[in-house]
Fold each of these.
Amino acid sequence: MADDKKTGREIDEVSGVETTGHSWDGIKELDNPMPRWWLWTFYATIVWALAYTVFYPAWPLISSSTGGLLGWSSRATLQQDIDAAKEAQAVFLDKLATIEVSEIQSDAELTQFAIAGGSAAYKVNCVQCHGSGATGSPGYPNLNDDDWIWGGTVEDIYTTIAHGIRHAGDDDTRVSEMPAYGAVEILSKEEISDVAWYVRKISGQEFDAAGADRGQVVFEDNCAACHGDNGEGLRELGGPRLADAIWLYGGEHSDIVAQLNKPKHGVMPAWGERLGEATVKQLAVYIHSLGGGE
Amino acid sequence: MSTTLLKQPDIEPHDVKAVNAGAKQKAQPLYAAREKVHPKRVQGTFRRLKWIIMAITLGIYYITPWLRWDRGEFAPDQAVLIDFPSRRFYFFFIEIWPQEFIFIAGLLVMAGIGLFLVTSVAGRAWCGYTCPQTVWTDLFLVVERFFEGDRNARIRLDKAPWTFEKIRKRVFKHATWIVIAVLTGGAWIFYFADAPTLLKDFLTFKAPFVAYGTVGVLTATTYLFGGIMREQVCIYMCPWPRIQAAMLDEDSLVVTYNDWRGEPRTKGLKKAAAAGDAAGDCIDCNACVAVCPTGIDIRDGQQLECITCALCIDACNDIMDKIGRPRDLISYATLREYNHNMAIARGVDGEIHPERVRRDNKFVDAVMHFDWRIFFRLRTMVYFLVWGLIGLGILIALTARDRLEVNVQHDRNPVFVQLSDGSIRNGYTVKLLNMIPEPRTIFLSLDGLPGATMSINEIDQPDGVSFAIPVEPDKLRSLRVFVSVPRDRVSPGKRSFQFIAEDKQSFERDAYDAVFEAPTK
């Protein structure tokens, strides 16, 4: 290796080229010239970058940034995308607004659209009470199962969503009320306990035989009017079915006693005006598709 | 040395300098302007081989999309089609679905190992013969030669002032290049849609924008890379030379200048013989440099710029024939061969003495020649074995693969639901894949879950354990399926069972291992 007289840098003997002075495992890098077109390409990218900042938003100002000559903005593009999506959905939404809710499911494409839209609307408006999987919790009905206090057809579900349950501001809201048998002393403590045993009997759970026998009489006198002679429920009045495995407020003896003493009454808001016709219809179809729809 | 060998017909030495010879000057600029390479026309074995390979590769590229293949009424009739909108890849009798991309991945792995194999046998043969950059540059050079003449004429034309004649030649050349570039870009898009329809739409401006965009980009790159940048793509832009050079070993064939018989080179053989000086076979005519498409001097040894196209071999053999010397002064040779012969020529004093390897125009017996057995060494055989095994694996998998598939997703939220009669229900999304271009009725049934019944949202059929489901040709059908087990048959916790999909006509069958979840108490 010889050193160049002028620059003092090392010259590679074989090629006669200056090295960069860097060495890796004894291998030295030659300082060959860059092709000039490459250099010009590099300059071109700089010019491009500067021009870009003129045409597009780039330079930060104190509370905003330069707008760019083309007036492009990501929010405007997003708005365009949203408008385009809405326009694409308009066909379905218009159809939904006019069609009867019971007829939606005969149109496969419309059903798909309704389920997708209903699923999205559900996630925003319904999960707070009914849970993300629509499984509910004590006091909030599970929407996957087949137990419907007010009916499980798509029209019934639609009415429930649109007008709510015990929603004060809606004249068509669904209302059912159970008397506080214990609190206002319509029934004695013993009678309440007995009827609770009877209810456990007809719903197929363990029960106290003597109590249940006595309770049957109490049931027929006080409960059958709303819950049916055999506890099969009465949907016109919103009387829940008792002869099944599903309990809104719990199926233990103590749960039933508590409900007889001073009943809890859940409230669901009326969503009709708030969400609009099309969305409520989509929600009804979506809930119906969860597997418990009738 | 006998005098009969010293006939030296009029071989005009080329006034040519390798483009990278300039590096040997000490003062060099930071940024160098390109030195244009004007490759001379050459004839010979390797040139002929390159013509043949060019015809085959370009032929395959341009013609393939136009081959038809009858697949019935539910699938396209194009033999090779990459159908992005419906996510299918058709290759003659094979149809690939996205989840079968492993076949494509396998082919890519084979291509990679194939490259290793070729490289370890014949160096950068890919670069020299089949690389698209090489093929199109070659094609563009043919056009250039047609309009502007061979090397010397082109150099003169470059220097000449802008006359009408020069403008005419240049315009024709670039116009032809652009036509080729458009056709190249145009051929590409036909792989992605029905070729005749797309051609008609393209010409009547009804094709999708992306088609015009693709043709535009590929036209620009073909014109720029094949016509303007040429060897610079290989030298500055392509990462492959750096990688490929590392895959050579001492038994790989590379284009080699056999300086053990060529040195010392001399322009005047007769004069050297008269003076009794040693003279190698190289008469320093520079023909090898003049024909090189990357503009290098192969006599400097292996170098990054060499794409192993072997045109210098053809050029040199032509000269050797003319001066009555054996061919292959420049040849495909291995490093082992070269070192062996070099040792003979060098002897003990370190100087190259060509007479040590040659007696009366014949090489001494100890000179090593190309031996086809070098193809069969451990390394190449391992590459070939791996390559072959992957290929065999793909073939077996292709012939044995199912054209019917069932995939199941269990609902996560809720994992189970209790119904009013106390039975437990689980929800599933079942996907039935009919992977043939014919409509089918697929029977979906349950196995291994006693007492269970199924209901399917969009199939109007009473609950049961088996459903007949029509699936459109070449389509996936997604279904919401609910499986219920009555209260007295439910076992707590998880239970495995199977969804079974069957086509009773073709006897194809696929099963999916699913899980039924119930409360733990």
Note: Chain A has a mean pLDDT of 91.
Amino acid sequence: MKLKTLATAAALSAAGLASLVTTPSAFAQAKEQFFPVLVYRTGAYAPNGVPWANGYVDYIKYVNAKGGMNGVKITYEECETGYATDKGVECYERLKGKGATVFQPLSTGITFALTEKAPNDKIPLITAGYGRSESQDGMAFKWNFPIAGTYWVAADALIQHIAKKEGGLDKLKGKKIALVYHDSPFGKEAIPPVQERAKINGFDVQLLPVTAPGVEQKATWLQIRQSKPDYVLLWGWGVMNSTAIKEAVATGYPREKMFGVWWAGAEPDVKDVGDGAKGYNAVTMQHGAEPNSKIVQDILKEVHGKGQGTGPKEEVGQVLYMRGMMSAMFAVEGVKRAQEKYGKGKVMTGEQTRWGLENLALDQKKLDTLGFAGVLRPISTSCADHMGANWARVHTWDGKKWNFTSDWLQADETILKPMVKAAAAKYVAEKKLTPRTPEDCKG
Amino acid sequence: MLYRENGQFKTSYRADQQIFPILQDRLAIGLLLAFAAFVVPFVAPEYLFRAILIPFLIMSLAALGLNILVGYCGQISLGTGAFMAVGAYAAYNFSVRIEGMPLIASLLLGGVCATGVGVLFGIPSLRIKGLYLAVATLAAQFFVDWAFLRIKWFTNDSSSGSVSVAGLNVLGLPIETPVQKYLLCLAFLVVFGVLAKNLVRSNIGREWMAMRDMDVAAAVIGIRPVYAKLTAFAVSSFIVGVAGALWGFVHLGSWEPAAFNLNRSFDLLFMVIIGGLGSIMGSFFGAAFIIILPIVLDNLTVALGFDTALASHLTFMVFGALIVFFLIVEPHGLARLWSIGKEKLRLWPFPH
């Protein structure tokens, strides 16, 4: 290589680096609130990550089309994490510097890493339906908000649903339930509540880990064929779900007896399997696929109708799209709630937004005006409870769409509360943190 | 002109054996280190520290470790991620199970544990080599992934399998801010860099290189293959283990086995190959290339207005093309380009 080429290459890379280091600072002057959007549109989990991201971005566009948050427009920037923790951390650091209001990591692994960082940077983390289950305890986790539900709620609701099918919780005695889980922090979150329930209700649990990303499950399903569990709980994500259902078809395990977590209950998981997936169930945190809800109609009109939509129009209102939209709604409502205290029409800081998220009061009336009537039940968070609601439903795939097949299920607080308290206390002790005092909650 | 070394005569063995025999090199390295230690902490923004500099320093350390094994001793390893994981989890266990364990000690003990595991998985290298050895070290990767996912003792019975550390300090000085973390990593890298450079110049380093170039000939002239290969595995895994511990403790703060998966091993191998096999300097170049380039490309594509999915795919494509380009144009890696540059400067302005 010639010296000249070498010099050109060096100059080029220097220019690239320079563009990296300079961060834009001018936008903070205008009335704009910055929302970082951590997504994965590539990689093994992309089929599920894309609809979530589309829903999230569409909701932001919708809010802007409606005049923003009391006049404050939302600016946003996507960052591709590919579901990798170190990439997520890099995204966090990059977007943090641009005045981030709130982060939604969309990965349990990234949530764990960011939980360590958020308190220092004073940026709240919304983990709607994932993340650390014990972070429901706001006294220990000041900056984490698993709004609307955690994996422990999901597991408890599922066991209750199964018990109902059997004719009561006492009928679970002696039954065998297999837990097929993604071998990562995400999948393992399911183990404590299921084991706790097993102790109380006297059923057997068989733990069957599946290595990420989850395409290799032959051995797992061989074990299921041998042990013939009465029910299978599926804690999967991405390609693992459709593989599991295909394996169930191959081994002849009845799909009616399979219950997925809410990340294993969306259209991309069952579509490829076709008729084989008929009868497969999944728990879902409040919302399901709601193509007829008012908010979906509004988005179709205001965003997609004006050619501004993200992603295909047919996917609007599907399960993961709804989840992305709902997650964005929590962030927007958090900011709006904060504005009620710190001044309407102002740009909120991370700390102020944190207060808003902690005092979220989405009652029925509010949900109706937002267009979420029938999609969600009321959610109200507090200092001690960062989750706000513990309701779930089970829906079933009929070959074409998801239909609700259960009533509203509420997780049993008498079982989960002590577990959350204990896990949060362990975290606080391990980290040598001081938990918040009641005075801290008044601020 | 700039690099003319006329008049720099060496009159003692000591002067002849310096790491940087040329005055200009000594000056440049001295200035670079002074800049890194005394200027960068005051001027660089936080993002640069957290997203680029700290990962770069730690990955350089890991690449340095791997380079000793692959570049100097010629033993191809695909288990680097595993040895990093062993370092990280061992250091974690030392720090949570032993009250008042100092940070540096637990990091180094993490390295010691990685050494043990590295030597264990290095034993097959006595009988097999090349591609076969690569596959054997792959076993380390799978075994370690399995162990840390399944054996709860290693993760201190954490229900999710993810572990985290906090309240880091060295001799009472907290390691909390990005600058402190950066300086800690820099100190580790400088110390290990000097140690490694001296090791490869010493008799053991020559044994490694003899082993790499032709093991039969090396054995004939009296080099013990067992000793040479296993020491290479030991030194390499030790450095890689410490890098893994730093990656977990300092960079991520909270991690799961996926942080040290097979991709990590591949990345490190690419770093060594692109940077330059058998070159200490090359490890740094390789790490910089692999860490910084995707981020630069990411930022550029986003700045140009592509959507994230396309940007991410584009990054992969450009990245792959660049690797192929480099391997064709300069198979000895970036370190070789660097030395060509120096040669040219030495002759400039009178090229032959």
Note: The beta strands of chain B are 163-164, 169-170, 173-174, 254-255.
Amino acid sequence: MTTRQEIRRARTAPAGAHARPARPGPRRDGSRRPPFLRRANPLAALGALAWLVVVGMPVYYLVTVSLRTRADYLTAGPLAPPTSPTLDNYRLVLTGEFGRYFVNTAIVTVVSIAVVLALALPAAYAIVRGRHPLIRTGFSMMLLGLAIPSQAVIVPLYLLITRMHMYDSLAGIILPTVAFLLPVAVLVLTSTLREIPNELYEALALDGGGPMEALRTLAIPLSRPGLITVAVYVAVNAWNGFLFPLVLTQSQDQRVLTMGLWSLQGQYTSNVPALMAAMTLSVLPVLLFYAIGRRRLVSGLTAGFGK
Amino acid sequence: MQTGRLHGRSPVHQRPGVIWAAPAFVYFLVFAVVPLVLVVGLSFTHWNGLGMPRWAGAANWSRLAEDPTLGSSIRLSLILTAVAWLVQTPISLLLGVWAAGPGRGRAALSAVFFVPLLMSNAAVALLWQSLLDPNFGLAELIGPLLGAPDGNVLGDPGRALAAMALVVSWQFIPFHMLLYQAATRQIPRSLYEAAAIDGAGRARRFWSITLPQLRHTIVSSSVLIVVGSLTYFETILLITGAGPGTATRVLPLHMYITGFQAFEMGYASALAVLLVAAGTALSIGIVRMTGYSRMDSSREGM
């Protein structure tokens, strides 16, 4: 059997911390469970339903209010269902500066994903496969760095970014955003790459491939779950980021969605439905993403914090 | 599978050198580690955000002692952190254990539970500000829960802080619920089977198996809650602007306002150092107190 086949076989059974493990999770049929675990627990279900109200009511409010007219909202009360749903609020929001905020946020998000992956993947590969003592040191620094709260270093970051003449630019937002997502990205990719068995690297070495070759043909294809997890984690964090734009930008041209919402709040003080429409629009991409790949998103959100 | 570490460089292997990791390490060093060192340095300067920082000696540090707002912001931070922990830990633990169970209903419900986690701080803040608005929102519905039957939640110091604890918990319970859900699924089924054979009821199984097995998760989740509540201010800034008065001016918010609204960046840096020190001390305290570092294996006797 040639090594290529071996590698292909390994690819079809992806390794990695985030590949679906055969864990005793929810099963389609309860038949393999012992009977005592199948009995319903009314108390727990009641608690869960109570929490559903706590979470669901604000979300219901957000969506229904965004579909109502201003007059209807003021007269019929906040929780009334939209009797004649209208998209006028969305129209109003989209005719303003909202599109610009959306594009800016998309730029910050996409560039952050690209930069994080470009930095974290070779680093994780070196941490798993390399032997240089400095790599250990750097990895330890990253793990300790997990505990640095971005809020606490926001003053020196402001100093750095202004000195680099990056103040009030999207690049100025991206630079620290990437830095604070790097440790988790490296951590996740490291644990994914560890899963690739040594034999595969040896087989590849016999074929005469260097580290570059190994990364391209082995590490990247086999660590796809980890790469997706990191991309999702970076995407949600960059999309929702508020602190760096707050401190590092000021002009309307460089405004991202989170800052845009804040400015709209002043604009639509008495037009709650329009504000809710803007917020629904800002959350929508993440929600759509969630609807498509829930498992990925959930593993992405808790990336690096499991156990 | 044999993964014997090869000592020295094997003739067939070409290992990646340090150059592969250098970009990520240097980048992180510049934008995260250096700022951490800088913040200590800046705390010994006067700087208004423009021009160059001027050496100030220990002026900012002695100012900590006579800052009237500092005492109240530390107190508010501690209250917020304690309430956030007390609210989040039991709810997220119970929800997580429940969500780890079987059944499609649970999966569907859990899907809804995660929505707050997908929203930005800005969206969460504006949503709750609207909900708590005494004129249009649901304040009449939520107010009584916070001891405000008249619906005036954000206008009253004590209630405003309680409302902030509620909002922060609402936002982060889903995250901790995920941690507990994942940890619960790791618990070996055989433990429950053995307990069932011994005739242990549901409550007994939860108390004697689930909880002890989740010890590690409780500790890590608590550390995250404490450090998070200590440094977190964006949502509060957006909802109350630290008011009414200084009723919700928690320590990180005090730091932000000092630095970016009063432009006393040097003093803000001293407050930031205080924050980091408090967070580190509390985390170490939690880990020590719970004996996390010398915990025996939770799989003992298996």
Note: Chain B touches chain A through 111 residues (CB under 8 Å).
